[in-house]
Every structure is written in structure tokens, then in C-alpha cells.
Design a protein that fits this description.
The structure is a single chain. The chain has a 9-stranded antiparallel β-sheet. Strands 7-9-14-12-11 form a 5-stranded antiparallel β-sheet, with no helix packed on it. Strand 28 (335-337) and strand 29 (343-351) form a beta hairpin. By secondary structure, it is mainly β. Helix content is 8%, strand content 41%. It is elongated. The relative contact order is 0.09.
């Protein structure tokens, strides 16, 4: 009973103070400043007047457009009028839902939606897709072609570390993009994105939207027909190589069965070479001695590189089915001529960006990627 009397007395006192003063000061005997209904302070200094602050109620907001959890969605009393009446309601939100516009911080209700007082939510990690290309094969699960069907997305981490959860980050044309759980600790680096699913038809550099760590950006997805002679197409790679600081595309005469010199086209980057309209593909693991069959993006046979001319030391191609045991070549390695003349092949006699595939014995590295 005494407690009830104390509470009642306190309430009446506050009501009396409210009736006596238009403004109230908590923490000081002095009244509030003229323009304020309520003032929080520990002393009457005109400058610094407290060593503490206002602790806002901490709430898990559920929807940026609704007064949840203040009201139950099924509550018949929750009407548009209640939204208006609660204009100015302020809380400290704990929910993180970047696509929904919610992240930790103070929010105020403006009568229609919650507004974050610190400015709009920004993702803790920023990403840049840039020119990212991913390749798959028609009728083959992209999960079985890991070298071709992964993407590296550049990221920047402004402060501290970030725990990236395993998640599906995009789905299109039967293909799913996902990331595995990982810890980002470096200020910048790359996030590996993997793909699964089987493309049902050819796709030519189609825009593929991904949502990663609160960021959205687009990469480019292609799917083409693998060479029939490759094991399920899983080893098909672009017949593209790096020599010094340049990349080179290899082209052959596709219209004649007569022997013809194999030509090279110089490119500024690997991506440019893989996307070159004349670029060809081959079965990327050839560790036994044989010719090098080449195919276009549709998986159609175009011809073979079958020997090196003894006099010019330039590789020769033909559309005829000649397959001498002359070469070894596989992704990440060099192009080796086994029989006389023996040696390692590269771009020779380059002039104006064009040359010939011949014995140079320079260090050459074949791409590990499929065509784009």
C-alpha cells in the first residue's frame, strides 16, 4: 500500500510540475530553455552540462514502412491514422536488413516510414564487378567446370574485418551463383564466386545480376557448345597464350585442306583475347603426343595444328584429318613441339600485332580459362 501511495504521489507531483511549467528539466532544478519542452542536464551550465547521455530504447524494427513491432500486423487498431499519430517516434534499431533499408542506428518515424538519422545504410563491404566474364557449356553442370565457371569479385573493406556468410547471390537461366563462408580481413582483395546449374541453350555474354554483402552489380555469363572430342567438354579451354606482357590468339585457315601457316593475333589482355571473334578452343589437357584439334565457339571442328615446318620453324595447320604425334599442350603450360624441329612455340615475327605460331623457345603460358 505504501508503494502505491509513493507512486501515486510521484505521478501527481509530475502532473503538477507539468501543469505549473510549460517546459521540464530532468537532472536539474532549473526549468528547461524557452524553446524546449524537455531538457536533460546535470547542472545549469550554459555550455557542457552533463557527462551522460540519453539512452534510446533498443528495438528490432521489422519493416521500414511499418510500425512493427510496436503494433501487431493483425491488430485492427493499427490504422493509417496510427501511423500519422506516431510521427516523431524515435528508437535505436538493432536489425540488419540492407536490402530492406534497415541497419543498426537511430531511426525516427516520419508518419510514413522509418528514416535513419545517420544517413542511409551503406554496406560494410564494397565490391566492383568491372569486366567479369563467366563461361559454361550447354548441357553440362557448371559445377563440373570449376576453372571456367568461377568469378573473382574485387572488394574493399573500409574498416575492420567482415564475416561473409555462405549464400546464394544470384540465379538466372538455370544457373545459380553462390559464395562459401569466409572471413574478409585484408583492406582489399577478391571474393570467389562459384556457379552451378546446367545451361540449356547458348548464352552470349548475358548480364547476370548478383547481390553480394548488400551490394548489387552485374557480371557476364556465356554458355557455348563444347568440342565433342573433349571429355564432356569439361576440359575445353581457349587456345590463347601469354608471352611477355601480351596475350595472343591463334587462328588457322578454316577453308582449305592445304597446309597453311598458323597465325597469331596480339591482344592487350587475357579477357580481350578470350573474347576475340577469331579465338578458338581446344581440349585443354593434352599430355600425350598428338596433333592439336581446334574448334569454334559452337564446338564445331575447324582444323588441326599438325606439324612444324622444318625450314621456317612455323606451325602448320590443315582442315584435313592429319594427326601426327607432334605436340603436347595443356592449360597453364607451354606448347611443345616433340618431333624435329623440337622446341617450344610462341608468337614469332610479330609485326603490327600479327605474327606466326613458331618455335621461339620463349616462356609461354596457355590460359586456364574457356573462351568468353
Amino acid at each position: 500500500m505504501n508503494i502505491k501511495r509513493i507512486i501515486l504521489g510521484t505521478a501527481l507531483l509530475c502532473m503538477g510540475l507539468a501543469a505549473s511549467y510549460a517546459q521540464i528539466s530532468i537532472g536539474s532544478y532549473a526549468g528547461s530553455d524557452e524553446g524546449a519542452l524537455l531538457s536533460l542536464k546535470q547542472n545549469d551550465n550554459s555550455g557542457e552540462n552533463s557527462n551522460s547521455g540519453l539512452l534510446l530504447p533498443r528495438v528490432n524494427l521489422e519493416d521500414v514502412d511499418e510500425l512493427y513491432p510496436m503494433f501487431d500486423p493483425a491488430d485492427p487498431l493499427y490504422t493509417q491514422n496510427e501511423k500519422v499519430l506516431h510521427t516523431g517516434l524515435t528508437v535505436y534499431n538493432l536489425t540488419t536488413d540492407l536490402p530492406g533499408g534497415l541497419c543498426p542506428g537511430p531511426y525516427s518515424w516520419d508518419g510514413r516510414k522509418w528514416k535513419r538519422l545517420w544517413g542511409a545504410c551503406t554496406p560494410p563491404v564494397s565490391i566492383r564487378c568491372g569486366s567479369v566474364y563467366v563461361t559454361g557449356y550447354v548441357g553440362i553442370d557448371m559445377a563440373s567446370t570449376p576453372a571456367a565457371s568461377t568469378a573473382r569479385i574485387e572488394y574493399e573493406l573500409p574498416d575492420g574485418g567482415y564475416e561473409l556468410d555462405a549464400a546464394i547471390i544470384g540465379t538466372q537461366d538455370g544457373v545459380t551463383a553462390y559464395v562459401e563462408a569466409q572471413t574478409l580481413s585484408a583492406p582489399s582483395g577478391y571474393i570467389t564466386v562459384r556457379f552451378s546449374g546446367t545451361p540449356s541453350s547458348a548464352i552470349d555474354k548475358k548480364t547476370f545480376l548478383i547481390d553480394l554483402a548488400g551490394n548489387t552489380c552485374s557480371i557476364y555469363l556465356s554458355a557455348f557448345y563444347p568440342p565433342a572430342s573433349c571429355a564432356g567438354g569439361s576440359e575445353a579451354r581457349g587456345f590463347v597464350f601469354r608471352q611477355n606482357d601480351k596475350w595472343h590468339v591463334v587462328t588457322i585457315n578454316k577453308s582449305s585442306s592445304a597446309d597453311a601457316a598458323v597465325q597469331t593475333i596480339e591482344c592487350a589482355s587475357e579477357e580481350e583475347a578470350l573474347r576475340h571473334p577469331e579465338a578458338l578452343q581446344y581440349c585443354g589437357v593434352q599430355t600425350t603426343n598428338r596433333c592439336i584439334p581446334l574448334f569454334d565457339r559452337n564446338g564445331d571442328y575447324q582444323g588441326v595444328i599438325f606439324k612444324v615446318d622444318a625450314a621456317s620453324k612455323v606451325a602448320q595447320s590443315t582442315t584435313a584429318l592429319r594427326c601426327w604425334e607432334n605436340f603436347r599442350v595443356y592449360s597453364g603450360s607451354q606448347i611443345q613441339s616433340i618431333n624435329s624441329p623440337a622446341g617450344y612455340l610462341g608468337a614469332a615475327s610479330v609485326s603490327g600485332g600479327k605474327g606466326y605460331l613458331g618455335i621461339t623457345n620463349e616462356t609461354v603460358a596457355m590460359t586456364t580459362n574457356a573462351l568468353r
